[in-house]
Amino acid sequence: MINVDQINNGFVLDHIQAGRAMAIYHYLNLDDLDCSIAIIKNAKSEKMGRKDIIKVEGSLDIVDFDVLGFIDHNITVDIIEDGKLVEKRELKLPEKITNVLHCKNPRCITSIEQELKHVFVLTDKENGLYRCQYCDEQQGRLWEKIKKLEEL
Known about the structure:
The chain has 4 helices and 9 strands, in the order E-H-E-E-H-E-E-E-H-E-E-E-H.
């Protein structure tokens, strides 16, 4: 059995689908942090079979819950203070995301006006589909795009 030290003040990203921890690590820019981070891959889980876990000894301020909910709304965030679990947050698909996706439509105003924010609105909760606020271009779930990060 592998032992990972307990977190005194920080958070745990739990119930990450097995094999996706590194993509989440990169997408949330956790590599830019100067704190202890533990990535546990393929941990046994009664609920999921196998899962990944990310433990971060540091401030929760670095996590954008909308981005994390968009990446995988089944992840739970355990908030740890003084070595104790003080809060467990369930994520959901955000109604709107900004600068997470970029519109693929070459005629979209965001292709011409570079300083415009890329805003997508949730249009199909069941399938996780978003549409560009400006041109209505549809974008699917992020995992197709994140798979490229897993290959890094």
